[in-house]
Amino acid sequence: MSKASIVTCFHDAEVRCEKLIPIYMCLADKPSQDLLDAIFEEASVCELLGLPLDVESEHEIIELLQQNNKIGFLAEFATPKPIHFKNNGNSWTSGWGYYQKKWFYADDVEDLEDAATEWAYEHFEQCKLKELSEVQSD
Q1: CA distances (Å), 62 to each of 15, 19, 23, 25, in order?
Q2: CA 105, CA 20: separation in Å to the nearest integer?
Q3: DSSP string of 73-130?
Q4: What residues form DSSP beta bridges with 73?
Q5: What whole-number distance in Å separates Cα of residue 61 and Cα of residue 29?
Q6: Beta bridge partners of 75
């Protein structure tokens, strides 16, 4: 997929990359600070990378990532939370002031792109179904 088509795809799905960490480039002597922050601050990142929640040492992190063959890409994506659905869900409000974020791991960037856009579309549909069902039950 060309960079221009990725831009179009991300625009259409209303998704953006907040952080992109190429793990294989961050393990030379110690993990990058961005990678450490993600591991220590987000339990979901440990799960994605096959790390125990109580992992502490940088050396252990490097060893486990290599052992688990998790040396691809870690990325955090964001998408707006749509609200105020009207006309059976055909119109709504959304913006980047109110959004959802999620971490993803993939061996290559193309798989990250696919996962992020799929997640953004699913997130939109879930918000839409939830709000419309709440309106109908009132």
Answers
A1: 30, 20, 10, 12
A2: 10
A3: EEEEEEEE--EEEEGGGTEEE--TTSEEEEEEEESSHHHHHHHHHHHHHHHHHHHHHH
A4: 22, 106
A5: 11
A6: 20, 104
Residues belonging to the chain: 138
How do residues 4-56 score in pLDDT, each as one tens digit?
888 899 999 999 999 999 999 988 888 999 999 999 999 999 999 999 999 98
- Inter-residue contact 39 to 52 (CB < 8 Å): no
Q: Determine the Cα–Cα distance for residues 137 and 115; give it in Å rounded to an integer.
A: 33
For residue range 92-125, list pLDDT tens digits in order: 888 888 899 999 999 999 999 999 999 999 999 8
